[in-house]
TrEMBL record:
The chain crosses the membrane at residues 109-132. This is Late embryogenesis abundant protein LEA-2 subgroup domain-containing protein. Residues 41-55 have a biased composition (Polar residues). Residues 10-25 have a biased composition (Low complexity). The keyword Transmembrane applies. Keywords: Membrane, Transmembrane, Transmembrane helix. It comes from the Eukaryota. Residues 1-82 are annotated as: Disordered.
Amino acid sequence: MHAKTDSEVTSLSASSPTRSPRRPAYFVQSPSRDSHDGEKTATSFHSTPVLTSPMGSPPHSHSSSSRFSKINGSKRKGHAGEKQFAMIEEEGLLDDGDREQEALPRRCYVLAFIVGFSLLFAFFSLILYAAAKPQKPKISVKSITFEQLKVQAGQDAGGIGTDMITMNATLRMLYRNTGTFFGVHVTSSPIDLSFSQITIGSGSIKKFYQSRKSQRTVVVNVLGDKIPLYGSGSTLVPPPPPAPIPKPKKKKGPIVIVEPPAPPAPVPMRLNFTVRSRAYVLGKLVQPKFYKRIVCLINFEHKKLSKHIPITNNCTVTSI
């Protein structure tokens, strides 16, 4: 081989064009169109080579179409995402509706249980009340004793002169609880002892508890202190003691018999009060009440002072 001359080298370089460095080709990625039935979409890739210009920059038309395809692809992706989000939200709403439908029967069951339990409890309470109501307590007034009864002159609160009575009596009665499964709490209204429509003494029963199927004797003090009588107390004044009968002298003639004065008539009095009994069968929910009104007529005699006066047959006991 022979060596090339400088002229040959210059001619070869002028005849062959200079090669520019090779640039990479551009590819456009476009998604396939979404299906109209909402199913999952698959993205297909189309590789389109973009020719480079001799100067190394892509043509203007190819760059604009690439941007347009990217914008359309992003819009389609946005629509697909919105549809998919709407489907998910709709499924969530359906799930919430199913949960509400499941929770509704539970509430109905709870409400039905409460109503049923209340009706059953009310029915049971009614049975207890009906069973307890006929088991009424029994009260019997035995006697009254007047320890003191004194009438003397005096003045009332207005300064009017009249007879004043002071008395002290003891009332005895027998109380029996006939209840088989409950005890009772016992009180009373004021016990009034009256004479000629004037209350000359009063008292009351101290509250007590009587257990089932048991009895006790109740003692009540009836007191009166300087009660004005306004002219109606003459019969309450004890009669004077009878004067001694002188022995007749022994003379001839008929014998004269002197009779002692007639005893004073009994003084009518009236005793009036109400005994209240209350049972707690089921706490404070079932409380049968038993009221007994008692009226006694008393015939007081001064010779029976400080003695027991039986009044059982003179008393009436009424359920109210």
